[in-house]
Amino acid sequence: MSKILLPTSTAGSLPKPSWLAEPEKLWSEWKFEGDELLQAKQDALLVSLAEQTHAGIDIVSDGEQTRQHFVTTFIEHLDGVDFNQRETVRIRNRYDASVPSVVGEVSRPKSVFVDDAKFLRAHTDKLIKWALPGPMTMIDTLYDGHYKSREKLAWEFAKILNEEARELEAAGVDIIQFDEPAFNVFFDEVNDWGVATLERAIEGLKCQTAVHICYGYGIKANTDWKQTLGNEWRQYEESFPKLQQSKIDIVSLECQNSHVPMDLIELIRGKTVMVGAIDVATNQIETPEQVADTLRKALQFVDADKLYPSTNCGMAPLSRTVARGKLNALSEGAAIVRRELLGK
Ligand SMILES: [Zn+2]
User: Does residue 15 form part of some domain?
Assistant: First the structure.
């Protein structure tokens, strides 16, 4: 869909300015309220867009400036979930967290991100990508005292996500991405109903659709978990065959500094692949040559017109300086390989 060879993008989030929320932290509190908060979020979105544009990123996003968290913020806008009634559950089999409860039928009384998407659309002519949480990752951050079935709740969320996605498409979003880090953990469920609920979420969409599957932000619980995975991370092997057969257009995955064997990309042959060439779990800024090297390796398994250079995951927990450096490295690294491919 992109006319540019190797179009660059980010997996989603970018750091927030310190005047909006405490930086380098997840679930950071807003520093404004009401109308002032609305204005401040929009200003931050414009700053984030300017930084992406300045770095030469081809497919831009809102940097997730208007949300506290990639899953929670969406759920906050739904009926049927009580944020005051909290229970402790284990998230992605990795760490315990106090989470809200599903107390009745879930529904979306009004759109969640559509105004933000219209605002972004009005400020750029570039392709825009919008991230939503995937159904399986949503259910994994909740205590369900109503449906008492992970699968049932996932189907309900898929229906709701589809409503939101259709409105985002109408607002001019070019790529809608569903974040499903849970796909790297619950393999049986992915095959039984995970991919099916994801396909329900994209039903009827004409824009491009993506799924982002990763090993998480660079927070301690995730880096500790990664230590237990051994030398070769083959988790993608479980979900890729099913995704290869699905209607999803793009698969976003983690490749930089990860122990994912690059040849696993072969399992999604035919799909467009957003290749993570920026490690978000370290403050060390990649050199353009390191980025180029990862992209060259990926090119052995994905055709050049289907390779979209990206980041491993969101950069919300990083400092703005580091994130800016990484955006530049991504852009410059992609440019090196683009020149090689075009022979100039
Ligand atoms: Zn991620």
Answer: no
Distance 126 CA to ligand 1 centre (A): 23
CA of 146 relative to ligand 1 center, distance in Å: 29
Whether 10 maps to a domain, the answer reads no
**CATH number for the domain that contains residue 250:** 3.20.20.210
Over the stretch 126-173, which tens digit does the pLDDT of each residue have?
Answer: 999 999 999 999 999 999 999 999 999 999 999 999 999 999 999 999
- What's the gap in Å between 279 CA and the centre of ligand 1? 11
* Residue range(s) defining the domain that contains residue 40: 34-342
Predicted pLDDT of residue 19: 97
Alpha-helical (H) ranges within the chain are 34-55, 72-76, 114-122, 135-139, 150-170, 187-189, 195-201, 220-227, 236-244, 288-298, 320-342
Element (H, E) at 210: strand 208-212
Which residue in 304, 275, 296, 192 sits closest to 9, CA to CA? Answer: 275
Number of structural domains (the chain) is 1
Q: What's 263's DSSP letter?
A: G
Separation of 253 CA from ligand 1 center, angstroms? 8
127 CA to middle of ligand 1, Å? 20
